[in-house]
Amino acid sequence: MSLSRAKVRKPSWLSGGFDLRSVLLEGRAFFALIVILVVFSVLSPNYLTVSNLLVMSQHVALYAILAIGMLYVVLNGGIDLSVGSTVGLSGVIAGFLLQGVDLPGDVRAFPSVWVTVVCVMAVGALVGLVNGVLVSRYKVAPFVATLGILYAARGAALLIAKGATYPNLQGFSEFANTGFNRVGFDKILGLPTGVIVMVVLAAVASVVLNKTAFGRWLYASGGNERAAELSGIPVKKVKVRVYVFSGLCASIAGVILTSELTSANPTSGETYELTAIAAVVIGGASLMGGSGNIRGTLLGAFVIGFLADGLIIVGVSEYWQMVFKGVVIVLAVVLNTIQYSPRRRARTDRPAGGEPTMQDSKTLVATSER
Fold this sequence. Notes:
This protein has helices spanning 12-15, 20-26, 28-43, 50-75, 83-98, 113-136, 142-161, 182-185, 193-211, 213-223, 225-230, 235-261, 272-282, 294-313, 318-347, 358-367; strands at 101-103, 107-109, 187-188, 191-192. By secondary structure, it is mainly α. A hairpin with a 3-residue loop joins strand 1 (101-103) and strand 2 (107-109). The radius of gyration is 22 Å and the shape is globular.
């Protein structure tokens, strides 16, 4: 079967008739978001106001940007635990540059805001590159590799900042490096900058997944890496690129967060990696790899963000907030397991000694076009 003739895979409830169980499983993030909106709008009259929705969306944007990068890694069958530390490191790098950098010859340079942003993004991509090389070339388990980088990146942030915080990142007008504080606070067409960045990034990531060869390679290598390799897909390159993209997304989130706070704290972004993974899982992606989409991931981020802000608005204790979030994540994982259990059984039905054949790989690549 050629790629050009491959049919788009439909949800099971469309291809096999109406099935309430499938509808609830595959649309769980959407239904959960509706329930959250209804419940908290009843508990608080200010919850669904335009101003509050914009504030909550600004919070969600950080989670969503991280989750988009995490989705690429999860689609590849991996995990990235270092994104939270990369957020903190990115903020510290931004603060370090904006305060001025001492150069040889008693010269102190003050990079402009855009130069600072580009440098921060380069650092995030470099962290992702290290993760990708460890996982693809040296065959380190993704959990172990990214856990090690989590500690390394956090330690580097603490060393650069000497355990302190870079305050007041407005810059210096005499050195023409002001404006960093507006990166996260400015609005375009009435929408916060972070929301605009989230929308643009989601659109680009969706096009890459659905309309490019790299997207088909990613789904194929995540669904069955051995079969994808037999079909000629550059599996190692795909693996490196998804981790680089994840690091890049983490650095973008770090820039936005640091700009909103107008200060750089080396401990920023703690536990953000767990929130990103939760958003991907709630959005319906399989932790086994090969299945998931941007739409579901965005819904998952909104579920987490709107739930967290709603609990704060109605005055729920911080400790109970943690309990509720934990229950939602566990429930999402259970539903994820239920949804993909038939698929896992189908994978194990191959006859004994069944190395994936070339025909298997061709079929896998063809059906991976979504």
